[in-house]
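Input (Acetylornithine/succinyldiaminopimelate aminotransferase):
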Amino acid sequence: MILKNTSVTRNNFDDLILPFYKPSYFIPVKGQGSRIWDQEGKEYIDFSGGIAVTSLGHCHPILNKVLNYQSKKIWHTSNIFTNEPSLRLAKKLILSSFASYVFFANSGAEANEAAFKLARYYAAKKYHLKKNNIISFYNSFHGRTFFTVSVGGQAKYSDCFGPKPSGIQHAEFNKIESVRKLINKNTCAIVLELIQGEGGIIPASKPFLEELRILCNKYNALLIFDEVQTGIGRTGKLFAYEHYSIKPDILTIAKSLGGGFPISAMLTTSEVKSVIKPGIHGTTYGGNPLACAIAEATIDIINTKEVLSGVQKKLSKIIFELNIINERFKLFKEIRGMGLLVGIVLEQKFIKKIYEILYVSFLEGVIFLTAGNNVIRMAPSLIITEIDIIEGMKRFCCALEKIL
Ligand SMILES: *Cc1c(COP(=O)(O)O)cnc(C)c1O
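Output:
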C-alpha cells in the first residue's frame, strides 16, 4: 500500500473543486475499522464515521467481499428490470420494520424528496388537491434538494435560490402547542427527525411524538420520520422509532444503510402504497444491484443482537471516558443523544473555541464533528473497539491540554 504523497494535495482543492465545502487540511487515503490514515501516513481515530455513514467502520472485510463478489456479477441494470439484491434487501427491511413496501434511492435528500412528493400525492388522490401543507420543524435538516431544503428548518439554506416551494410550515420542535396552531384539514404530512442531528443532537420527547401521532390521525395527515441519520442501528435499535413505540406512515433511511456506499430508502404502508402507479416518480440509480448487495450485507451484520446491544456498551464506555475528561476540564454541561449519536454540549466559555477544539484534535489524531454551534458530535462505527475508544479519548485529552 502506497501511503506517501501522490501528485495531488489538499491545496489543489481550492483550484479544482467548487467551494461548497471547506475540507480539513489533510486528505484521508486509507481506512481500516475506526482508524484512518492521511497522505503522510499519519493515523487518526475516527469518531465521525463519515458523518454517521460508515456504521461498520472503514473497509469492513465482509462488505469488501460482497462488493467484490457483486462487482463481478452485475453493477447496474436500470429500473426497466428488477434485480435480486434489491428484492432481498427490501424483504429484510420489511421483515424488520412497520413497513410493507420500499422505494430505493441514492441519498437521504432523494428519499425525503420521494417521501414529501408521495405525501402530497397521496393526499391529492385520497382527499383533495388543497391538502398539501407539510409541517416540519425549526432547525430540522432533511437534505439539500430545493424541496427538502425548504422543508428543513433553516431558512439560510434555502434563501437566494429563487421562489421557494409553498405549502411548508415550521413549528417548534418538542412543543406540541406550536403544531396544534398550524395543523388543519389541509395538512398532508408532519415530518421530523427523531433526533435532530444537524440541529444539535436533540431527541424528540416521547409525549411529543405520541401527540403528533394523535394529531396526524385526527387530521388525516401522514407522519413521516426522517431516520436518515438515526436509522440502521445508530441508536442501538435497527430504527430509532422502536424506542418510542410509535409507528410512522413513511420512514426514510440512508446514511448507515450502505455502510459507506451511497443508497437510501423510503419505507411505507400498504395504505399509502395504494395510490401509486408506475411512472409517478423515479430514479436512474435507485435500487442499483451493487448498492443493494452492500446494504444487504450491512443490515445482516448490524441487525444482530451482538451489534445492536454493543451500541449501548460502547456508549457507556465513551460516557465514562468523557466524564473523566470533564472532571479535569469542565468542558461540557451535558451529553445528549441516543446510542452512538452522541452530542457533547459545551459549557458557555468553550463555545467560541469549538472549531479550535476540533482542529487541535485532528492534530492529535482524533476526529469529531460538530452539530449546531455549541455541540461536539460523535457518530462512530457501531463496532468501534474499546481500545480505539480509550486511545481516541486519550488523544482528545492531549488536544484539550494544548488548548486550555
Ligand atoms: C444527512 C441527512 C439528510 C440528507 O442526506 P443526504 O444523503 O446528504 O442527501 C437528510 N436528513 C437527515 C436527518 C440527515 O441527517
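Residues 107-109, 112, 141-143, 193, 197, 226, 228-229, 254-255 surround pyridoxal-5'-phosphate (CB under 6 Å).
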